[in-house]
Automatic annotation (TrEMBL):
<dbReference type="InterPro" id="IPR007387">
    <property type="entry name" value="TRAP_DctQ"/>
</dbReference>
<dbReference type="GO" id="GO:0015740">
    <property type="term" value="P:C4-dicarboxylate transport"/>
</dbReference>
<feature type="transmembrane region" description="Helical">
    <location>
        <begin position="47"/>
        <end position="65"/>
    </location>
</feature>
<feature type="transmembrane region" description="Helical">
    <location>
        <begin position="12"/>
        <end position="35"/>
    </location>
</feature>
<keyword id="KW-1003">Cell membrane</keyword>
<keyword id="KW-0812">Transmembrane</keyword>
<dbReference type="Pfam" id="PF04290">
    <property type="entry name" value="DctQ"/>
</dbReference>
<keyword id="KW-0472">Membrane</keyword>
<keyword id="KW-0997">Cell inner membrane</keyword>
<feature type="domain" description="Tripartite ATP-independent periplasmic transporters DctQ component">
    <location>
        <begin position="23"/>
        <end position="152"/>
    </location>
</feature>
<comment type="similarity">
    <text>Belongs to the TRAP transporter small permease family.</text>
</comment>
<keyword id="KW-1133">Transmembrane helix</keyword>
<dbReference type="GO" id="GO:0005886">
    <property type="term" value="C:plasma membrane"/>
</dbReference>
<dbReference type="GO" id="GO:0022857">
    <property type="term" value="F:transmembrane transporter activity"/>
</dbReference>
<keyword id="KW-0813">Transport</keyword>
<dbReference type="InterPro" id="IPR055348">
    <property type="entry name" value="DctQ"/>
</dbReference>
<feature type="transmembrane region" description="Helical">
    <location>
        <begin position="85"/>
        <end position="107"/>
    </location>
</feature>
Length: 183
């Protein structure tokens, strides 16, 4: 399941990169058209507004997957590794919850936009489609956060299990040493 989510995240990021390239070319040709021919490209503002939103929402999960979000960790870095993992679990659960709320809001907004027939100003593009795409981006972000929380929980459980086994082994050796000293 984790591999599928990570693959989807990378796919959405690739789509965002293509959107960025198209937006860059469109703006360049629009500026050239204004300056050279006094004729801008119709719909550039519509496409730019929508493209910027899509770039953000389709790439946000990838940014979290790569752990490139801004973090303020000058306090957390001084704590033990286990406490750092606990903080990371809590933060990822909070991220998933907040993104879940945003996803719900985006779906509600998409439904409202679809029912009202809201379209963009120049090209008459239906706006609800882009709200749905943004919701998909937030779902992926939530899933990545949940995956990180699960991975860190496993790390804590694994380290606790190793410590328990070491304690049992050391206790066994200590008991054997006591028994051999008594003999």
């Amino acid at each position: 399941m984790g591999k599928i989510i990570k693959l989807l995240t990378k796919g959405l990021h690739s789509v965002a990169q293509i959107i960025l390239l198209v937006m860059m070319l469109l703006i360049t040709f629009d500026v050239l058209g204004r300056w050279l021919f006094n004729h801008p490209i119709k719909g550039t503002v519509d496409v730019t507004e929508i493209a910027l939103c899509m770039i953000v929402f389709l790439s946000i999960g990838y940014a979290h997957l790569q752990k490139v979000h801004i973090t303020i960790d000058f306090v957390v870095d001084k704590l033990s590794k286990k406490v750092q993992l606990i903080f990371d679990i809590v933060i990822n659960i909070l991220i998933a919850a907040v993104m879940g709320i945003i996803t719900y809001s985006l779906w509600q907004n998409a439904d409202r936009l679809m029912r009202s027939g809201t379209v963009s100003s120049d090209l008459n593009l239906p706006i609800y489609i882009f709200s749905i795409l943004a919701a998909i981006g937030t779902i992926i972000f939530s899933l990545i956060a949940i995956l990180f929380a699960i991975e860190n929980s496993r790390k804590i459980l694994k380290s606790t299990k190793v410590k328990d086994e070491n304690f049992r082994v050391n206790s066994t050796f200590s008991q054997q040493a006591v028994n051999s000293n008594e003999s």
